[in-house]
Design goal:
- The chain is of the alpha/beta class and about 350 residues long.
- It has one domain: NAD(P)-binding Rossmann-like Domain (Rossmann fold, 3-Layer(aba) Sandwich), CATH 3.40.50.
- It has ten helices and 13 strands.
- Helix 3 (about 85-105) links the parallel strand 4 and strand 5 (about 110).
Length: about 350
């Protein structure tokens, strides 16, 4: 009996990696880890994506190349506060190391990027929504510039590769469980706690997210089918929730959960820059100004009304994200937030005669 194909998985302890491991059953999975052990992998290999030969000695590297049939590259700096040097060191230079491994192993590459690389107005080299300096610590432009650079590395490498572009990844579509909360979770938590004085989005702005199990199933299908070229968009597409609908659903959820929620006012980002910042923000405490500036930077990702492309629903891939599925996934994410963050009100004591 021939040996099972061997997949090297980077980022196995991350949001997508933890969801992907069970989907790769039938393959032998080697998890390349830096610090965090990964339960569920067939083998773990300690390495460093930013080092030559991934931090392995020559013998271990040659052995890895001889065994690997495909590489799923999920590892990335996804935070918006790590700074450009650290972000590019992993998302661009690390991808260059992975591409070299794929070439040396004569393997296939499945490179996980981001749908938001299409938001070309958000870039560190230009201006656009969320680009004013303010006092923000969140710099999504550093992340997006590094992901664009990583894609360029893959495209110009000549190795057989599929670039996978998910939108915001949320927790499991049924349970909401996730290995680490993401930026959208932070905004939803602030919303439920009444800490958003306003939302700098127009009602028709599209909030595109996909549950981690949908993205994992897509990647696994591509690996299983031996796809070796092209770009795959894993997004809600034109079924993404509008910003006003998301707020409406959050209000309904808060009422069911017994949370007091006064919905924030929606204002255009231009109004924030022209009026709210110069007139009102100077007198706010520094921490409040930073929170608002970070919110502006984060919501800049969602200012577009034009939907992303999507390949969900195409032959061999998971079903498309309908509006009902997006709403259900949002409810699961909110439920997980409330459980994990301890936002639930205690049940009222029973009154007996």
């Amino acid at each position: 009996m021939p040996a099972a194909p061997t997949v090297l998985l980077t980022g196995a302890s991350g949001v997508l990696g933890t969801a992907l491991l069970p989907e790769l059953s039938g393959r032998r999975v080697i998890a390349l880890v830096h610090h965090t052990p990964v339960p569920g992998a067939d083998e773990q290999l300690t390495g460093d994506l930013t080092a030559p030969r991934l931090g392995l000695d020559a013998t271990a590297y040659a052995d890895l190349c001889a065994r690997v049939d495909a590489v799923v590259h999920c590892a990335a700096v996804t935070g918006f506060t790590d700074g450009p040097a650290a972000t590019h060191a992993l998302n661009e230079a690390g991808t260059l190391r992975i591409v070299q491994l794929v070439a040396d192993a004569n393997a296939l590459l499945y490179h996980v990027s981001s749908a938001f690389v299409a938001r070309t107005g958000i870039t560190g080299s230009g201006s656009g929504p969320g680009q004013d300096t303010g006092e923000r610590t969140a710099r999504p432009e550093n992340y997006l510039d590094s992901k664009r650079a990583g894609e360029d590395v893959v495209r110009t490498s000549g190795v057989p590769a599929v670039i996978i572009r998910p939108s915001v990844i949320t927790g499991d579509s049924r349970t909401g469980e996730i290995s680490a909360f993401q930026g959208l979770h932070g905004m939803l938590a602030s919303l439920l706690r009444g800490r958003l004085p306003l939302v700098p989005l127009s009602p028709g702005s599209l909030i595109d997210f996909v549950p981690q199990d949908v993205v994992a199933a897509t990647v696994a299908a591509l690996v299983r089918d031996g796809a070796h070229e092209g770009e795959v968009w894993v997004t809600a597409g034109d079924q993404a929730l509008r910003a006003d609908r998301l707020l409406e659903l959050a209000a309904e959820f808060a009422a069911q959960a017994g949370l007091d929620l006064t919905l924030p006012r929606m204002v255009s980002p231009d109004l924030v820059d022209r009026l709210i910042r110069p007139v009102f923000m100077a007198d706010l405490p520094p921490a409040t100004r930073r929170r608002l500036d970070d919110l502006l930077a984060m919501t800049a990702l969602f200012t577009a009304h034009q939907p992303f492309p999507t390949d969900l629903g195409k032959p061999g891939l998971p079903a498309a994200m309908g509006a009902d599925r997006a709403e259900s996934a949002l409810h699961a994410a909110l439920s997980q937030l409330v459980r994990t963050k301890g936002m639930n009100r205690p049940a009222p004591a029973l009154v007996t005669a």
